Sequence to fold (293 residues):
Amino acid sequence: MSSAAPGTRPHYFVPQPSRHPAMAAFGLFFIIFGAANWINGADWGRFSLLFGFLWLFWVLFSWFSDSIRESETGSYGRKVDLSFRWSMSWFIFSEVMFFGAFFTALWWMRSHSVPALGGVENALLWPDFKAVWPSVSAGATASPAGTIEPFETMTPFWLPTINTALLLSSGVTLTIAHHALREGKRGTTVMWMWLTVLLGFTFVCVQAYEYHHAYTEMNLKLSSGAYGSTFFMLTGFHGFHVIVGMLMLLFITIRLMKGHFTADRHFGFEGAAWYWHFVDVVWLFLYTLVYWL
Fold:
């Protein structure tokens, strides 16, 4: 612990040695080990995967409980709050780079890879190949041998547009909740936060229905050439981030109901809000580049 005088908040907080990082790594090992064996035909791998997830969730619950207790007992001072803000900023920056890599891959395939396959160098090998994007049939994809089954491409109407409205609305309700918290209106904050969580949950449900429709009625799958792989990688990873953000907002809402946070000290709320607005912005890029162009 820090050497602050009794009754005062420490300038820096030095936590006691923790078992949580090692235990989290233990759970991650079983997640990766189980997933690797399951996708390679070993049915027992799913049990390892399930055990790893359950173990990791228990560790995270214990870890976060300790952090919340430290915060609520006044162990965190201004320097700690500043370090949290920098940490969240760098984390979101890393997420920007993560999605930037996938958006760059999409741009490279559309602007370089597919046109190159349709160039004069490959005309003798694949004379009937059509370098078009998005590809919708065998022979018009980056698989001229016809190994990709015909499929339909996804349009912005209507499920993606509905999801766009849901996410944008959730950003508005979250901002209203933030202003209510800064004004000390806890009941109003909780109400708007529950609405934000509901909008996020609805987004995930609509996307799940969209995936079911794509697989069963459009024959659009992860294996549907470059179009299918980029579509599901981008929308799938974004959907995962929506789930993570929704859980963050859910736990923040529960903490608000327990009396945590004040009008002046609520970075836990702000950090989750930053992340949610980041998810909103990524979806706007995704909605434009994947569904419209």
Helices lie at 20-38, 45-72, 78-117, 159-182, 186-217, 225-257, 267-292. Residues 197 and 246 are 6 Å apart (CA to CA). Confidence is low (pLDDT under 50) at residues 1-7.
